[in-house]
Amino acid sequence: MRYTILGLLLFFTVTLFGQKKTQIEFQVRGVCGMCESRIVKALDVPGVIMAEWDRETEKAKVAFKTRVISEEQIHQRLANVGHDTDKVTASDEAYANLHSCCKYRESEGGCSGAENDKHHPE
Questions:
Q1: Less packed terminus of the chain by CB within 10 Å, N or C?
Q2: Number of folded domains in the chain?
Q3: Per residue in 63-110, pLDDT tens?
Q4: Cα–Cα dist 66/33, whole Å
């Protein structure tokens, strides 16, 4: 009985502490506060510990558990909501679903003035 309890304790310790965590930083195209909300929301999934996006640099920082979600899955999730990354380009259909102020591929894209931080209904 004692060995069973010790074995279970060892198993749970290895399982809980064996989760490898890593942090990555990479380019994610976007232009406004609504883009930032969409990017962060797309990464609000199991395995992602922290996600943030900087509008000025267009860089995302993501901390995640590698046994739960992969770096490739993170990039794909962002592309699925319309944002190009260093590794995955959003489909034309996903990009077309972005609000007009979020169209980073087009020269006239981007919000102007006070509209920069508004969240437009999609």
A1: N
A2: 1
A3: 999 999 999 999 999 999 999 999 999 999 999 999 999 999 986 555
A4: 28
